[in-house]
Each structure stands twice: as C-alpha cells, then as structure tokens.
Write a structure and sequence with these properties.
The complex is a heterodimer of chains A (118) and B (204).
Chain A lengths: L9 H7 L16 E4 L9 H9 L4 E2 H8 L3 H13 L3 E4 L13 H12 L2
Antiparallel strand pairs in A: 1-2, 1-3
Helix pairs in contact in A: 3-4
Chain B lengths: L4 H4 L13 E9 L5 H8 L5 E8 L16 E12 L4 E9 L5 H7 L5 E7 L7 H10 L3 E6 L8 H8 L7 E4 L4 H25 L1
Helix pairs in contact in B: 2-6
Classes of the chains: A mainly alpha (118), B alpha/beta (204).
Chain lengths: 118, 204
C-alpha cells in the first residue's frame, strides 16, 4: 500500500482531504508539536494510522508533512480532523509571536544556553 | 512512488523528548546555492528534511494579489532541521529561498519566527536585496552572515554598503560547513534579539 504523495496529481490530494483545501481549524503552526492519543486501528484512513504511528513521541507538524510526503497544508487538514476526533493532542509554541514582536527574555536565554551547549 | 508506510516512518531519526512542548523557529534566507541547507545540516540533530507548502489564492491574505492569477496555486519547497535545546524546547531551522516570487508564502509560513539569518554570497550580493527589504518591511529581526566561498572577499564595510544595511543590523563572516561557525551565527542572531529587546524596554 502506498501513501498519497506530493508527487501525485492534485486530484488525488483533493480526494485525500474530501475536497477541502483548508483545515476546519487554523491552529497548526509549522512547529506545533503533535502527540498521538490513540492506537492505529483497522478501518482508519491510512494517513491517519501513519500519523498515529509517528506521533508516539511528540513530532512537529512540518516533520509529519515531510514524512508523509504531503504538502503542509494537506497535512494540516488531516491533523485537524484527527484533533476533532480526539486522536491527537497538540502542544502549541509558547511564544507564538506576531511578525513584529519579540520573544520574552526567558525564552531567549534558554535558546542561548542550549546553543552554547551544542 | 516509493514508500510503503513502514518505510516512511522515521525509524532512524532521533525522536524528541516526551516532554517537548515548545517549538521555536529561525529562518535562514538566501539565494540558490548560498549554503542554507549546508548550514541546517551543520547544526541540526537530524538529517535535513524537505517538505513543501502549496498555496492557493482564495481566502489567503496576500500583499499583492496581482502576482497570483486567479485560483492558481503555487508550491514552494523548503528544507529544515531541528535542535533540541532542552527537554522542553526545540528549535526548528528553515532554509528558505529568497527569490521574490516566494515571499508571499514566507509571510504566512514564518509568522512567529524568532528571527532570520540572511545568508549571502560575496559574489552575488544582489540576490539578497529583496529578502532584506522584505524582512525590514515586516520588522522581522535579522542578521546577515557572509558565507566563505574562498577567493578574495570584499571588506565587511563594502558588503554593508552594497546591502544598504542599517548600522544596528549585525553582519558577520561564517563558514556554514563548520558546525562551530554555524552555531556562532545562531548565537549572534539570538544576542541581537536580546539587544533589540533591551533597547525596546529602555525606550518604553
């Protein structure tokens, strides 16, 4: 069995998401971390099952898209459905910023300490 | 098509900590071949991954709709890697092509980024003009890092003039093939962010 991929024609991606081009909720950042809250089960859409297998540990939205070889926008639609179904939980970036805003000192200090330890 | 599902799963990739709960973003912008992916690879915990974003015009906020024919969709690919900074904080690094035609996507993709690194090639500085202009327009904090391609470089003053950089924007040299050098670029950006914050607090 193969997953729909980004090399596929648009019609197939359209089918994959039931014809939608936008998620039911717009709460997924590229770096929102996703954690599976259910086991893959028979009858699940194969992409949903694949996502549950890859989110036994936290994984960012952008990594899920890369691993599924799907455009980020399509991955977000799948994730949105799974969130609605209670199959995943999400951990949003704590310093969600506007483009013109700056993060807080604590966050920056953490980042610096982490980078210096690399 | 490759990939049965089992092959898609990142078995070999270092997983995040179970407690990871805060994803941060830094964007590396630059022209083709300037070393964005090399830099990501130098510091990332994982081999750089590639994905893409597709954007259709309908319902999106664009600065200039004239650039996009009605109902067209545009696809842009980007590389990324990540660094686990501690058990809670994960820094994602995105390499983004700086060409003009992609910017309406970045506006959406990279909202909320900590800041940007503009990676430049001494011989092709003009490739960076548009990216710098755009970052300034959006007031996204950034620094400029000149990647070492050998040869006889211009002085940093000449580069600063050619890019028409504001005096407060840091401009540094780097060799993105080096982990230590790439790490220094990231540190320089974060220190710049701290300085900006301190300056802002002092003016309020």
């Amino acid at each position: 069995m193969s997953l729909a991929g980004r090399d596929d024609d648009p019609d197939r991606l359209y089918t994959l998401t039931g014809g939608r081009s936008r998620p039911s909720r717009d709460c997924f950042d590229l770096v929102t971390l996703v954690v599976g809250e259910a086991e893959p089960a028979q009858g699940m859409q194969s992409e949903h099952a694949a996502i549950l297998r890859m989110t036994r540990r936290p994984v960012a939205v952008v990594e899920i898209a890369a691993d599924l070889r799907l455009p980020v926008s399509i991955a977000k639609i799948l994730l949105s459905d799974m969130l609605d179904a209670g199959w995943i939980s999400v951990r949003h970036p704590q310093s969600a910023l506007g483009v013109a805003q700056l993060p807080d000192h604590t966050t920056l200090e953490k980042v610096l300490v982490g980078l210096r330890d690399l | 098509m490759d990939s049965a599902i089992s092959e898609v799963l990142p078995a070999s990739r270092t997983p995040l900590s179970q407690t990871a709960d805060n994803g941060l973003k830094i964007v590396i912008v630059g022209g083709f071949g300037v070393g964005k992916t090399t830099m990501v690879r130098s510091v990332s915990d994982i081999r750089p991954l590639n994905t893409e974003e597709t954007m259709t015009q309908a319902g999106q906020h664009l600065d200039d709709l004239r650039a996009v024919p009605y109902k067209s969709s545009t696809t842009v690919a980007f590389d990324f890697g990540r660094i686990s900074l501690d058990t809670h904080t994960v820094l994602y690094l995105f390499g983004a092509p700086g060409q003009e035609r992609f910017w309406f996507l970045w506006d959406r993709l990279f909202t909320g980024t900590l800041g940007a690194i503009v990676l430049v090639d001494d011989r092709r500085l003009a490739d960076s003009w548009y990216a710098i202009d755009r970052l300034e327009h959006h007031r996204t904090p950034f620094i400029v890092a000149r990647n070492d391609f050998g040869g006889k470089p211009h002085s940093l003053t000449e580069v600063r003039d050619a890019l028409d950089l504001e005096p407060q924007v840091p401009l540094i040299d780097c060799d993105v093939r080096s982990r230590a050098s790439s790490k220094q670029v990231l540190i320089a950006l974060v220190e710049h962010l701290q300085n900006l914050m301190t300056a802002r607090e002092n003016t309020v």
